[in-house]
Specification:
heterodimer; A: alpha+beta; Immunoglobulin-like; 3 domains; four-stranded antiparallel sheet; 7 helices; 8 strands; 23% strand; B: mainly alpha; Rna Polymerase Sigma Factor, Chain: A; Arc Repressor Mutant, subunit A; 2 domains; 9 helices; 69% helix
Amino acid sequence: MTCDELRPDYLPFALGVLEEPERSELRSHLDRGCETCAAGLREALAWEFAMGAAVEGPEPPRELRSRILAVAQGRPERRWNWFAAGLSAAAVAAAAVILIVYQAAGSRSGAEAAALREALDLIQAPETREVTFGQGQPTPPRGRVFFRPSGVLLIASHLPPPPTGKTYEMWIIRGGKPAPAGLFRSDAQGDAIHLYRPVTPPTENDTVAVTMEAAGGVTAPTSTPVIVAPL
Amino acid sequence: MLLLILAALAKDESGLLVRLRRRDPQALADLYDSYGAIVFRLILRMVRDTGTAEDLVQETFLRVWNRAAGFDAERGAVGPWLLAVARNRAIDHLRYRGRRPESNIDLNETEHPALFADLRTQPHYFELTRHVSRALAQLAPPQREAIELAYFEGMSQTEIAARLDQPLGTVKTWMRRALQQMREALGGAA
């Protein structure tokens, strides 16, 4: 076959859908170094690329990037599937809570949505550790604290909405000294999610505590903690 | 969005390919930052399932990571190669899932790195991406459908002819005209 006869086959070949005998014919031209067919194929390959690059749709999950890099470097794979990742049922439930909030984030500010994505990332991170609080206690609240060097995530339930003029304040207690770790409120169902980015990485000798304080927060706790979670 | 894609594609890839061949992990991260979203959207468009798309995106990047040594860093265009690998992974999945009979076409041939040598010298390499949506929209519906069945589902011309209940020769004519019309549309837009 001549190059002119093969011209209609450049695009099907580039798309991988050209059938025999045309495919072998075109392949033989390319193998012979036929510049006419090579140029035609380059144009078709450019179209193939452009069609793919022009597809619109959602962004990939942020976690996918770290998952691919981890596998490429031979580290254990951390899947978006939390159970497959070996996370506890409670962690899965906690992540589900965040996801529910996150999926409603369309009406939230960009900063809030970013914080929720960061919370999800923190739960998924290989180095993240978790502790529970409130389990076995006669009265709630109950929940979990996830922490790694760059973040501390508190997820609590049965936390009564604070009265007017009051708010919850989290503390990182180190060496007996509490340091402010951000303000937050619980919702009408008593659920609360609070992400704190510490200047100094938390350690296993620290304790996370929560007190109810005046709106605007204070520099040292003034009430009995409602949550105490040794890390 | 398209401008962002173009900006990402405009990066000089030769250094990136050199680092990929050295198996520099940061090179893989850079490659993902440039093309991860494009690859994900393409695969999702084809398989229509987020979880499956994530798995296939991972397969795509790892395949490129493991085969970068065979790529000519001085001549190759990594973006087109990456998308060809991505598309082939998705087509393999569609075939494996049994939506339709197994094809006798070897997709691996279309992702051989040598095919993408010198593609960066293609005059309208970036212009193509900018105008491809409009060019496709200008195609007659049967031509566009034939192209989309070939591209997004990996159907051979015989399979397309059967799907559309048209003679094989008609489908071949459509595809030939489609490429010609896209070329003309680009010429008018550039």
